[in-house]
Amino acid sequence: MTQDHKRRHSSVLVDGPRKAPARAMLRAVGFTDEDFRKPQVGVASTWSMVTPCNMHINQLAEEAVRGVDGAGGKGVLFNTITISDGIANGAENMKYSLVSREVIADSIETVSGCEGFDGLIAIGGCDKNMPGCLIAMARLNRPAVFVYGGTIRPGRGHTDIISVFEAVGGHSKGDVSDERLREVERTAIPGPGSCGGMYTANTMASAIEALGMSLPGSSAQDAVSETKLEDCRRAGEAVLAMLERDIKPRDIMTRQAFENAITVTIALGGSTNAVLHLLAMAHAVDVELSLDDFTRLGRRTPVLADLRPSGHYMMSELVAIGGIRPLMKRLLDAGLLHGDCLTVTGQTLAEDLAGVADYPAEQRIIHPLAQPIKASSHLRILRGNLAPDGAVAKITGKEGLRFSGSARVYASEEAAQEGIADGSVQAGDVVVIRYEGPRGGPGMREMLSPTSAIMGRGLGKEVALITDGRFSGGSHGFVVGHITPEAMEGGPLAIVRDGDRITIDAEADSLTLEIPDEEIRARLAHWTAPAPRRSRGVLAKYARQVGPASGGAVTD
Q1: DSSP class of 530
Q2: How many whole angstroms separate alpha carbon 445 and alpha carbon 463?
Q3: pLDDT for 15-30, tens place per residue?
Q4: Closest Cα partner for 467 from 458, 459, 488, 269?
Q5: Are 297 and 262 in contact (CB under 8 A)?
Q6: Catalytic annotation, pick one of 112, 472, 510, 550
Q7: Residue-wise over 338-353: b if at least 16 C-beta within 10 A, else e?
Q8: Is 472 assigned a catalytic role?
Q9: Are 200 and 187 within 8 A, CB to CB?
C-alpha cells in the first residue's frame, strides 16, 4: 500500500498549494513539515471530571497518541462528552443518559469526518460512551481500535457503587443506620475506573473485545495500571498496522463477530443494556441482528461467571486471574465462538487465543462448562400480550423462574420510588413503571434506584418489576425492561391497572397480562397518549427521532 493510500482522508485537507491555509492552522497546534506526510489518527478521549469512570482517560489518550507517533503516524487528540449514570440515576437528569450515546457517536463522527482522520482510536470508560464510540467507528469505517479505560478497584469491605444504592434501600427500611450509610458512601468508590462488577461498562468492554474491536486483554485491566497504559500505546501501533493492511471496522464487525460478542456477554452474566447497545452497533454497520438472536444463542450458552451484581466477585478479581481471555478460549474450544473472525490485531480470533493459558485451578470465579451457574442465558427475551414486540429480562434463576403477582402501577420512576419507600409496594406485587421508554421518558432511564430499593428492603424474591425503561447493569432481582411497544406508543403496558394479574415466565419466555383479549382491546380503544414531557431541546429532538428499544433505540 502506498503512503498516499494510507492518507486517503487527510491528504485531501493538507496536500498541495491550495491547502496552505489548512497547514497553517495545523502548524499552530504542533504539526511539522514531516507530519503532513504522515497518516493522521484521531484519538477520541472521553475524559471528564464528572465521573470517576473517566477521570484518568486523558492520561490514557496521551499514551495512545505516543503509540501512534512512535509507529510513524501523527496522533491528534480531541474530546467528546460523557455523563455519569451513577450520579444521575433516580432523578430526572437520567433521561440524558441514553441520549448521550447518540451525542457521543455524532460528535466523534463529526470531528473525524471534518478533520479527515485516516484512522481512529477511541477511549471510553462508562456505559454510553463505549457503544457511542463503536457506532461512530462503524459509520466512519476507517481503521479503528477501541480502548477500554479499565475497571475500578473495590472499595473498603468489598464494596462498590451498587453497595451504596442498596444501602439506601436498607436505610429506608431501617436496617442500615445513618452512620453505616455514610461509611459506605465515603469508602465504596476509591478512585478512577468503571463500576466494579459485571455491570454495563465491564459488560460492554468485554463484548467489544469479543467483537474484535479491542486488543487482546483490553477489557480486563485495572484503570490505574501499567498494563492499561501499555494497552493504549499498543492501540496506536495497531491502527497504523490496520492502515497498512486496509483493515476497517466493517471487515471485523460481521454477524459472526456479533454472535461472539453475545455469547461472551451471556457467559459473563452481563448487563441487559448489552442487548440495546449491540443491536444499535449492528445497525450502524448494517448487520442484521434481532432480539431473536439473543434467544437462539442463549439456548446453547451457559452462564459461567460468578460476578456481581447477581454473583460474588468483582471485575478486578477476574483481572487478577487472567481476565476474559481464558473464558473465551474455553468457549472457542467448545465450539461456541466463531474462531475465523478477524480482529484489530490483523489475526483471527482463534489465532489471538492460541496459547492462552487456562485459569488457576483454585479459582472460583469462572465455573467449568460442565458445571455452569445457569445452563442457558440469564438474558431472556420475553414476548406475550404485554410485550408483543419483545422485552428483556435478566433472570439468573436465583430469584426463581416464574413470578405471578398483582400489578401496582406507576407512571414514572419517581412515583414508584415513593411507593417502594413508603411501604405501598408489598410482597406479591408486580411493580409496573411506564412512560419511561425511549420516546415516553424521553430517554429510557435506568431503574437502578427502584430495583436497589426493592433489594434493600429485602423484597428481591417477593416483588417483580416491569418497565418500558431499562436497567443498570447493577440491577438484579425479578426484573423485565425494554417492553415494546412502549406505553407512549400505545403498547399494552399503557392500559394495565392496579390489581391486574401479571405473569412472568422465564422458562416459557412470556410476559402475560392475565385479562381477556377483548378487555385489552377495549381499554386500548379508550386510551389516549399523554402530552410529550419535553417540547424543546435535545430530549425533545431525541423523542421525535428515536426508534423502539427492540431495535436498539437508534436515531438514524
Answers
A1: P
A2: 20
A3: 999 999 999 999 999 9
A4: 488
A5: yes
A6: 472
A7: bbebbbbbeebbbebb
A8: yes
A9: no
Are residues 57 and 194 in contact, defined by beta-carbon separation less than 8 angstroms? no
Residue at 205: amino acid letter? A
pLDDT at 1 over 70: no
The pTM for the full model equals 0.97
d(CA 234, CA 215): 8
Residue 308 φ/ψ, nearest 5 degrees: -60, 150
* Residue whose grid cell is 415516553: 440
pLDDT in tens, 111-161: 999 999 999 999 999 889 999 999 999 999 999 999 999 999 999 999 999
Beta-bridged to residue 119, according to DSSP, are 41
User: CB–CB of 473/201 below 8 Å?
Assistant: yes
3-class SS string, 424-469: CCCCCEEEEECCCCCCCCCCCCECHHHHHHHHHCCCCCCCEEEECC
Q: What share of the chain is helix, strand, coil (3-state, %, to 5)?
A: 45, 15, 40
* CA pair distance 396, 456, nearest whole angstrom: 19
- For residue 232, what is its C-alpha cell? 493504549
User: What b/e sequence results for 444-477 when a residue is b if at least 16 CB atoms lie within 10 Å of its CB, and e otherwise?
Assistant: bbbbbbbbbbbbbbebbebbbbbbbbbbbbbbbb
CB 467 within 8 A of CB 461: no
The arrangement of strands across the sheet holding 119-124 comes to: 74-79, 40-45, 119-124, 144-148
Q: Is the pLDDT of residue 396 over 90?
A: no
Provide DSSP, 325-393. Answer: HHHHHHHHHTT-S-TT-B-TTSSBHHHHHTTPPPPPTT--SB--TTS-SBSS-SEEEEEETTEEEEEEE
